[in-house]
Amino acid sequence: MKQTTDFLKMKENEEKIVMLTAYDFPAAKQAEGANVDMILVGDSLGMVVLGYDSTVPVTMEDMIHHGKAVKRGAKNTFIVIDMPFMSYHLSAKDTLINGARLIQETGAHAVKLEGGDEVAQQIGALTKAGIPVVAHLGLTPQSVGVLGGYKVQGKNAEAARKLIDDARECERAGAFALVLECVPKQLAKQITEELTIPVIGIGAGKDTDGQVLVYHDVLGYGVERVPKFVKQYENLNPIIGDSLAAYSAEVKNGSFPDDCHSFKMKEEELLSLYGGKA
Ligand SMILES: Nc1nc(=O)c2c([nH]1)NC[C@@H]1CN(c3ccc(C(=O)N[C@@H](CCC(=O)O)C(=O)O)cc3)CN21
Ligand SMILES: CC(C)C(=O)C(=O)O
Ligand SMILES: [Mg+2]
């Protein structure tokens, strides 16, 4: 299994880092089977598997419940788990307690939290306590209310400069990697070149050190509309829809279950069951 330091070496060797989200046992098994370098138990689970319209309602309990299932499915893959909304803002003590719970109770290897300068203290405290941290900048979905929607970030010079400063600050605070979401590709390239730690992009172009996508987006599984930056490698929705409709139709018309999906008792057992008594 890869370690935090291996991701730094991958950056140095210009070997791309592949990250994919997973929220449950089967997805984690598939991700590990596909040899992804890192699995992210993202708080996007609130939207793609719990049906909320943002990541804000996701709780520590939700993250731990899903994190445990992912770990059972991917025992040999590096796992990063999102710290949910407001679990790293109240106090240094709360941040450490929540970070420790996520690591200890799920068996994940690192936590991820959103923000730059304003959470540098928390990144430092967690790292000093022995919890590896991935920073997350650009479009930070937990701040959707403040950002006013899921929009590309860092489009003007001033916003871009702030993002570059924040990225440096995250590295200085001790983050071992940075997720950069929904920013212009030129800005992502510059940040990737300026940082020593690996930058993993999502909607950030091809020049970052790695890429991350949401499992359900890649597969077209459950999700209806996906962000522009998503490449759908499959569209499972109609496959699942058609399969379930066929099952339903066959139950209704009596063609399921047939003999090959049923169990049979031997004739002599049937005879002794009914034979003398009927
Ligand atoms: N299924 C899913 N995939 C994700 O990548 C994802 C989630 N959910 N939930 C949490 C966040 C939210 N994300 C999103 C959601 C929507 C857009 C989006 O629609 N963006 C517009 C761009 C708008 C603009 O031009 O500024 C787009 O058209 O892609 C982007 C990121 C990324 N994350
Ligand atoms: C989109 C990725 C980076 C994420 O934070 C999540 O899936 O929650
Ligand atoms: Mg997230």
Automatic annotation (TrEMBL):
Its main location: cytoplasm. Its cofactor is Mg(2+). It catalyses: (6R)-5,10-methylene-5,6,7,8-tetrahydrofolate + 3-methyl-2-oxobutanoate + H2O = 2-dehydropantoate + (6S)-5,6,7,8-tetrahydrofolate. 3-methyl-2-oxobutanoate binds at D43, S44, D82, K112. Binds 1 Mg(2+) ion per subunit. Pathway: Cofactor biosynthesis; (R)-pantothenate biosynthesis; (R)-pantoate from 3-methyl-2-oxobutanoate: step 1/2. It is found in: Cytoplasm. Mg(2+) binds at D43, D82, E114. Keywords: Cytoplasm, Magnesium, Metal-binding, Pantothenate biosynthesis, Transferase. It holds the Pfam family Pantoate_transf. Gene3D superfamilies: Phosphoenolpyruvate-binding domains. It is an enzyme of class 2 (transferase). The active site is at E181 (proton acceptor). Its EC number is 2.1.2.11. InterPro entries: Pantoate_hydroxy_MeTrfase (IPR003700), Pyrv/PenolPyrv_kinase-like_dom (IPR015813), Pyrv_kinase-like_dom_sf (IPR040442). NCBIfam families: panB, PRK00311.1. Catalyzes the reversible reaction in which hydroxymethyl group from 5,10-methylenetetrahydrofolate is transferred onto alpha-ketoisovalerate to form ketopantoate. Belongs to the PanB family. Homodecamer; pentamer of dimers. This is 3-methyl-2-oxobutanoate hydroxymethyltransferase. The gene is panB.
